Amino acid sequence: MSITNIFNKDSNKRHFSFEVLPPLKGNGTKALFNTIDKLKEFNPSYINITTHHSEYVYKEREDGLLERSRIRRRPGTIAIAAAIQQRYGIPVVPHIICSGATIEDIEYELIDLQFLGISNVLLLRGDKAKEDSRFKPTKGGHEHTTDLIRQVVKFNDGFFADGTPIKNREESFDFGVACYPEKHEEAPNIEQDIKHLVEKQELGAEYAVTQLFFDNHKFYDFVAMARKAGVTIPIIPGIKPFAKMSQLTIVPKTFHCDIPQELASLALRCKTDDEAKQLGIEWATRQVKDLYEHGFNNVHFYTVSAVDSVHEVIKRLL
């Protein structure tokens, strides 16, 4: 069942979903399953699994020179998605990204997902390499999310990327995309960013999930602008509880979102990380209650370094 069908089936119900990361290379699944075990009691509508393709790192050689090589720190998105679906019976939405992947890599991911009976995906460009000032596609890969969408649509239509017909077509993929209430960091302005969202919708995106934000007013303004521009698909707010004092400076830089003055003032009064964590729980709970009052019944939580906080927020909302 597609994500939008889940929402439409119980349109008056308040749905929540959350995102998890595959384990670091060499680590097991214990911590990941502990996260799901902690949150499954609230009956999540689906679970997103992030994708991290290979990236360049520099290693010092014996002669003192630096050698650039590619490593993949978090392999296993598709395998983890299958494991979650089998273990918990909860719908899964693995991410498929342009970054670090060739068109052929993506095609094999789609084939593997079909073999596993997973038909919901989130299509993203992915982050630029740390050493690059702008996103540089992998040789033989896609530069934009819209190019990735076209590949998936073509696959759904029964053709591989090179135009070869797919002999035995399986279930088509339903897909969502990302959007940014405070604009993507590389977009010149919010209007241009929304134009890209309109294009993703026109190509077949069924819903959009936002980057995390702390200011609901900016989210409401974004939704209003998007609707005026022709975006009709569901826009799902993404929430992450403030968890540490250091996040006051780290979060805006990493996720390119503002921290409202009220929250910043309260955070500056915190003397310990535990106080900051409690503040984050209270603020996120207030955010979601306000979202409910404005008719947004589907909320997505980012759980990295905030599992306990997300658990407490949801518990307070039930």
Could you characterize the architecture of this molecule?
It contains eleven helices and ten strands. The model has no long low-confidence stretch (mean pLDDT 90). The chain is globular. Helix 6 (190-203) crosses helix 7 and helix 10 packs across helix 11 (307-317). By secondary structure, the chain is of the alpha/beta class. The chain has helices at 3-9, 30-39, 77-88, 103-115, 145-156, 190-203, 216-229, 247-255, 261-269, 273-293, 307-317; strands spanning 15-20, 47-49, 55-60, 66-71, 92-97, 120-124, 174-179, 208-212, 235-239, 298-302. Strand 8, helix 7 and strand 9 form a beta-alpha-beta unit. Strands 1-2-5-6-7-8-9-10 form an eight-stranded parallel beta barrel, surrounded by four helices. The protein has a two-stranded antiparallel ribbon with strand order 3-4. Helices cover 42% and strands 17% of the residues.
- Distance from first to last alpha carbon: 25 Å
* Strand count: 10
How much of the sequence lies in strands comes to 15-25%
Please summarize the sheet with the most strands. Answer: 8 strands, parallel, barrel
Q: Please, what is the average pLDDT? A: 90
The backbone outline, from C-alpha atoms, is globular
Residue stretches low in confidence (pLDDT < 50, at least 5 long) are: none
Top keywords for this entry?
single chain; 318 residues; alpha/beta; eight-stranded parallel barrel; two-stranded antiparallel sheet; 11 helices; 42% helix; 17% strand; globular
